[in-house]
């Protein structure tokens, strides 16, 4: 709660939090919120401008742009979040085990991670999509499979630092069980680190998924997705450039909010990072996270 | 005016928060003498030194008069001030390891500084530095100049800075805790070099330290600071023999009791005597 | 130093072997039988089990796993990646020219990214907190949140169609480079710019800056030292930018119809042309390892601390 208060102190961060919250809620309650069926075709309304009934106008098949945007939140943001969560969880489990037990377990796990990381992230994702076939589920699976190793590497480092502290050593000496040490001492302490890294990768992953959909690798018609809406708008870009406006601005707004929030989160969770040198290092880590997510966007 | 540097009503504060760091100091440095500024960390010694050079960070503001050889430094433009720095007012930093650009060999800084002030050629600079470095007991001057800071020891870098000061022949040397980051033996050597530097050049010096043994050895006058305020000023003998202010007495006594304790533990006259 | 280089170079070899092995088994991740895919891609009307068995024998898929791997690896070393399932052409004749095209685009973009981020990073750090700094940061934040395909489309619409200044697609002339390079540079410079700026600012508090000023050096000289040190930190990151951008051109290549690896791999994925995908992955991963190795070596050569110790 304290953390929340600190984030809200910064007005822009408050606005960002609001945007992200609204987006998630709108995505979750899409069927109740959307004014129309996103896939219902009104050929007589093709390329119609904004009206009372259709506040953002209609697309090339006369479908309601607003409803498509709202339904598009699910694949564009919510499912990406789920995939991020899954790969962070996978990475966290491996990272915790490797960082806590060290020794041979660590060596073996890290060799696997190294092997995964020897592929550039985007190529691995593309390769997996190539093998599994086109489609949103396959993209999400490819995503989880290609990102976990990177999270595992970072979380391991964080856990290793915590495991080296005296109170953990003390707990081990007095015979507290491994699981109990992990659950009570290591997980809570490393959680902020994980949150910062995960949130900084989130924004670029949203961009990345929409990029795949834009290329036609992701969700298949007629389902709505922001990247795909932009791709559809692109075909008529020269005659009707305004169709790119709504989905384009939505993506920019949501991704900006996510990125801004991740910066604020970093500041709120780790006030000690505010010394210039540590801040620089943290910045580099966050930039690296952005890059990692960005590779295909 | 017989004073080389006359500081009056020097006030230093943080421009952002408005916190006053030094409320108003006045002191002077006589030609050829050494003024030691002592006090615990955070007492405003270092900020005072930087204020004399007008080198505090952008957010730190200062007011008051700094009359140096009859000229008020506070009124000079940044450009005029830059000409004074190095040439007339020379600073020696606390941490030699960090004072030189880590990505260049030590000689680069020496070259740049001397070319700036004297316009000498590369060979001339090398020649002059070789003599100066020899006089501060640095063996193989050429090799030292071609080494990166991390390849040299703190004491060696400190002596490189002293050697540069010898070539620059400034009127005033400001040494900001030059011995703090060193081990005991290098400390002894560096202090020795400072003494010789004064003897050889007859320049004045401001020597900041919290090591009273070093201060006693090198300084003519002592100024004690606490929380930004000068609590006591006077000649070195007077301060060490008969401190007026309670804080000074406290500083001297803790030093002495430590010293005595050390002597007792070591059994007889110890290294600390130096 | 020499030792370090040799060690780092040798380390790349096991990495390459791991990569090749993973690339080889990649094809088995597919839920479909490769033989079936081949037949489907060739448009065979009726796929019978006999036909599948025959194709398998033709492709050598009935032999033991490790032998197949060894054969494949030897072929790959001779740049023989097999034939495309779709067109039947040798994969290398498709991949080779595309790789060169992508490489050209990548190098042009990396140079633009470095120039843009270093220039802006240094200027903003020196003007920290002023209007210029804040507006550049605001714009870069906004542009980092913008999908590259959207930026690319907008650029085509404005510069190529409305103003008719630049070509919309292809790589016919040097003018064709402008739009794709700008899109990639704008998209990536934001991150590198932030890095350069904050490292420059952290340099400001270093003692050597104070000592330089105390010695009467000019601000220009001191700034050059700060840039030198900031770049030393950034150099490895910039080296890494080459492989990262190399593969991330997929979207931009598609929007601008650049005849490179990105376009090629997209077509291969959509038509399930496994040998092409496999070769693409292998070439990219090998390039990635090579650039990583080179960037570590450059880093070592640039960093006097490493140089002294090794």
Verbal overview:
The complex is a heterotrimer of chains A (297), B (274) and C (310). Chain A has helices at residues 2-9, 11-28, 30-33, 65-101, 103-117, 121-132, 136-163, 166-173, 178-214, 226-235, 245-269, 276-294. With 297 residues, chain A is mostly helical. Chain A is elongated, with a radius of gyration of 22 Å. In chain B, strand 4 (60-68) and strand 5 (71-72) form a beta hairpin. By secondary structure, chain C is mostly helical. The chains are: A mainly alpha (297), B alpha/beta (274), C mainly alpha (310). Chains in contact: A-C, B-C. Chain B binds chain C through residues 50, 53, 55, 57, 82-87, 89-91, 93-95, 98-104, 109, 112-113, 116-117, 148, 150-151, 161, 164, 174, and chain C through 205-208, 210-218, 221, 225, 228-229, 232, 304-305, 308.
Q: Do you know the CATH architecture of chain A?
A: Orthogonal Bundle
Class inferred from helices and paired strands of chain A: mainly alpha
What is the percent of helical residues of chain A?
Answer: over 70%
> How many beta strands in the DSSP annotation of chain A?
0
The sequence of SSEs of chain A as H and E is: HHHHHHHHHHHH
- According to CATH, the homologous superfamily of chain A is MetI-like
Strand content of chain A: under 5%
CATH homologous superfamily (4th level) name of the domain at 92-272 in chain C? MetI-like
Structural class of chain C: mainly alpha
Average pLDDT for all residues of chain A: 81
């Amino acid at each position: 709660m304290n953390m929340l208060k600190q984030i809200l102190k910064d007005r822009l961060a408050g606005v960002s939090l609001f945007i992200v919250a609204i987006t998630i809620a709108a995505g979750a309650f899409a069927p109740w919120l959307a004014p129309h069926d996103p896939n219902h075709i009104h050929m007589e309304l093709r390329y119609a401008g904004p009206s009372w009934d259709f506040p953002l106008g209609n697309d090339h098949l006369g479908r309601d742009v607003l409803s498509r945007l709202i339904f598009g939140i699910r694949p564009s943001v919510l499912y990406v979040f789920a995939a991020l969560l899954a790969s962070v969880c996978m990475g966290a489990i491996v990272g915790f085990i490797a960082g806590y037990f060290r020794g041979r377990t660590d060596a073996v796990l890290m060799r696997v991670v190294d092997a995964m990381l020897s592929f550039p992230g985007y190529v691995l994702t593309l390769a997996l999509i190539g093998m599994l076939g086109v489609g949103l589920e396959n993209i999400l699976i490819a995503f989880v499979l290609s990102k976990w190793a990177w999270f595992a590497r970072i979380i391991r480092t964080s856990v290793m630092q915590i495991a080296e502290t005296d109170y953990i050593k003390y707990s081990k000496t007095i015979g507290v069980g491994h699981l109990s040490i992990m659950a009570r001492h290591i997980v809570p302490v490393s959680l902020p680190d994980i949150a910062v890294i995960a949130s900084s990768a989130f924004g670029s992953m949203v961009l990345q998924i929409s990029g795949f959909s834009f290329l036609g690798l992701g969700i298949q018609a007629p389902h709505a997705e922001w990247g795909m809406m932009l791709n559809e708008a692109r075909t008529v870009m020269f005659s009707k450039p305004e169709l790119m406006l709504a989905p384009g601005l939505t993506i920019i707004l949501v991704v900006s909010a996510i990125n801004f929030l991740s910066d604020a989160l970093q500041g709120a969770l780790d006030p000690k990072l505010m010394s210039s040198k540590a801040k620089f290092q943290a910045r580099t880590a966050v930039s690296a996270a952005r890059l990692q997510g960005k590779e295909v966007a | 005016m017989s004073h080389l540097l006359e500081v009056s009503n020097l006030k230093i504060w943080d421009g952002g928060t408005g916190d006053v760091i030094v409320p108003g100091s006045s002191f002077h440095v006589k030609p050829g003498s050494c003024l030691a500024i002592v006090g615990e960390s955070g007492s405003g010694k270092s900020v005072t030194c930087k204020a004399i050079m007008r080198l505090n960070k952008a957010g730190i503001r200062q007011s008051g008069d700094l009359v140096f050889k009859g000229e008020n430094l506070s009124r000079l433009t940044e450009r005029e001030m830059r000409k004074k720095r190095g040439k007339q007012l020379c600073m020696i930093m606390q941490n030699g390891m960090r004072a030189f650009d880590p990505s260049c060999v030590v000689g680069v800084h020496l070259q740049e500084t001397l070319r700036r002030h004297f316009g000498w050629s590369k060979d001339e600079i090398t020649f002059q530095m070789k003599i100066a470095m020899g006089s501060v007991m640095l063996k193989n001057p050429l090799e030292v100049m071609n080494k990166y800071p991390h390849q040299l020891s703190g004491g060696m870098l400190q002596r490189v800075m002293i050697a540069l000061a010898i070539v620059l022949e400034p009127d005033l040397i400001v040494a900001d805790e030059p011995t703090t980051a060193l081990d005991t033996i290098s400390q002894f050597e560096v202090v020795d070099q400072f003494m010789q530097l004064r003897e050889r050049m007859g320049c004045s010096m401001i020597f900041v330290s919290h090591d009273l043994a070093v201060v006693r050895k090198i300084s003519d006058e002592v100024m004690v600071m606490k929380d930004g305020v000068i609590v006591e000023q006077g000649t070195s003998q007077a301060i060490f023999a008969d401190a007026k202010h309670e804080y000074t007495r406290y500083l001297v006594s803790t030093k002495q009791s430590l010293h005595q304790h050390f002597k007792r533990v070591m059994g007889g006259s110890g290294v600390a005597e130096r | 130093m020499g030792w370090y280089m040799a060690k780092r170079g040798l380390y790349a070899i096991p990495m390459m072997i791991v990569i090749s092995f993973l690339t080889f088994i990649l094809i088995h991740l597919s839920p479909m039988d490769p033989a079936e895919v081949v037949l489907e891609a060739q448009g065979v009307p009726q796929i019978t089990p006999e036909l599948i068995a025959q194709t398998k024998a033709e492709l050598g898929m009935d032999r033991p796993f490790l032998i197949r791997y060894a054969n494949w690896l030897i072929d790959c070393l001779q740049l023989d990646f097999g034939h495309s399932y779709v067109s039947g052409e040798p994969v290398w004749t498709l991949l080779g020219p595309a790789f060169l095209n992508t490489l050209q685009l990548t190098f042009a973009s990396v140079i633009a990214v470095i120039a843009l981020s270093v220039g802006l990073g240094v200027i903003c750090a020196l003007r920290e907190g002023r209007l210029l700094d804040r507006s550049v940061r605001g714009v870069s934040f906004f542009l980092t949140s913008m999908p590259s395909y959207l930026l690319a489309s907008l650029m085509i619409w404005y510069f190529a169609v409305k103003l008719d200044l630049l070509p919309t697609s292809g790589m016919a002339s040097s003018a064709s480079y402008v739009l794709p390079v700008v899109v990639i540079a704008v998209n990536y410079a934001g991150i590198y710019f932030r890095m350069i700026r904050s490292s420059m600012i952290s340099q400001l508090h270093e003692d050597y800056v104070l000592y330089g000023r105390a010695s009467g050096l000019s601000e220009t000289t001191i700034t050059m030292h700060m840039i030198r040190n900031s770049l030393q930190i950034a150099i490895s990151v910039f080296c890494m930018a080459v492989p990262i951008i190399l593969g991330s051109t997929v979207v931009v290549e598609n929007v601008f119809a650049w005849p490179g690896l990105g376009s090629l791999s997209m077509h291969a994925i959509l038509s399930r042309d496994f040998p092409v995908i496999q070769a693409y992955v292998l070439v990219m991963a090998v390039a990635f390892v090579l650039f990583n190795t080179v960037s570590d070596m450059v880093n070592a050569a640039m960093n006097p601390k490493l140089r002294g110790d090794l």
